[in-house]
Design brief:
Order of helices and strands: EEHEEHEEEEEEHEEEHEEEE
Structural class: alpha+beta
Largest sheet: 17 strands, mixed
Number of domains: 2
CATH superfamily of the largest domain: Diaminopimelate Epimerase, Chain A, domain 1
Helix content: 10-25%
CATH architecture of the largest domain: Roll
Radius of gyration: 17 Å
Number of helices: 4
Distance between the termini: 10 Å
Shape: globular
Length: 260
């Protein structure tokens, strides 16, 4: 199968994007998707997305992890897909699309950044050493003092595969408080490695950090740049009106054949 693809990234979190409005890529297998995402034998990406038609919405976001399996919500991916929709000619300031965790609103700002509304958070559980919450994808958040020196892959993999999380997996975030906000590093399930950025992870870390920081607007430094998270804290366990803001950049496009 010949595939015309587009490569985007959001603060270093990179994606292969396909225009699947005519369902031409509906037969792609998980093995083919994994091969396309492979950084040695394929294009290379943290995940693959398809932009599809959906009645009542501007489009549907279908997301696959780098292992080829259907993934949960991806915040940076959602922002990149909005930028892709704009490039395709769906040129508007406000967007309404649906993803695996439900409907999302998004806005294209004058400077090109994408502002994406995330799903509400309805619970934060204290876990030994950290916190667990769902921001469209499940996340474990742990505060550390030596973020740069941390072996994120080793530590993240151990938590991701520990008894509470081994069955379904979990994304693991390590957080350092700074004068201007927080810095984070994330180990992502499905990629099974550290990524340069994670939008749902940045959202989770911002929310967990907000009590200590005393703010509901948090600047989040990631390996690939900087994100902002805005939200309304209704109570300790209820957070709504959550927005993830950051850049979404086109990298290149091309044509390949899926041969697996």
């Amino acid at each position: 199968m010949e595939i015309h693809f587009f490569k985007y990234h959001g603060t270093g979190n990179d994606f292969i994007i396909l225009d699947n409005r005519d369902s031409r890529y509906a037969s792609l297998t998980s093995m083919q998707i994994a091969q396309l995402c492979d950084r040695r034998t394929g294009i290379g990406a943290d995940g693959l997305m398809m932009l599809e038609l959906e009645s009542g919405f501007d489009f549907r976001m279908q997301y696959y992890n780098a292992d080829g399996k259907i993934g949960s919500m991806c915040g940076n991916g959602g922002r990149c897909l909005v930028a892709f929709a704009y490039m395709l000619g769906i040129q508007q300031q406000h967007y309404h699309f649906i993803a695996s965790d439900g409907p999302h609103q998004a806005e294209r700002l004058d400077d090109g950044r994408i502002r994406l509304q995330m799903t509400d958070v309805r619970g934060i559980a204290k876990q030994e050493g950290g916190y667990v919450l769902d921001t469209g994808s499940p996340h474990y958040v742990e505060f550390v003092e030596l973020l740069n020196e941390l072996d994120v892959v080793k530590a993240g993999r151990a938590i991701r595969n520990s008894p509470p999380f081994s069955k379904n997996g979990i994304n693991v975030n390590f957080v350092l408080r700074t004068q201007s906000g927080i810095r984070i590093r994330t180990y992502e399930r499905g990629v099974e490695d550290e990524t340069y950025s994670c939008g749902t992870g940045a959202t989770a870390c911002a929310i967990v950090s907000s009590n200590q920081l005393g703010t509901q607007v948090v600047t989040v430094g990631v390996r690939g740049g900087e994100l902002q998270v805005e939200f309304t804290r209704n109570s300790e366990q209820s957070i709504s009106n959550i927005w993830l803001i950051g850049p979404a950049a086109f990298v290149y496009s091309g044509t390949v054949k899926a041969y697996v």
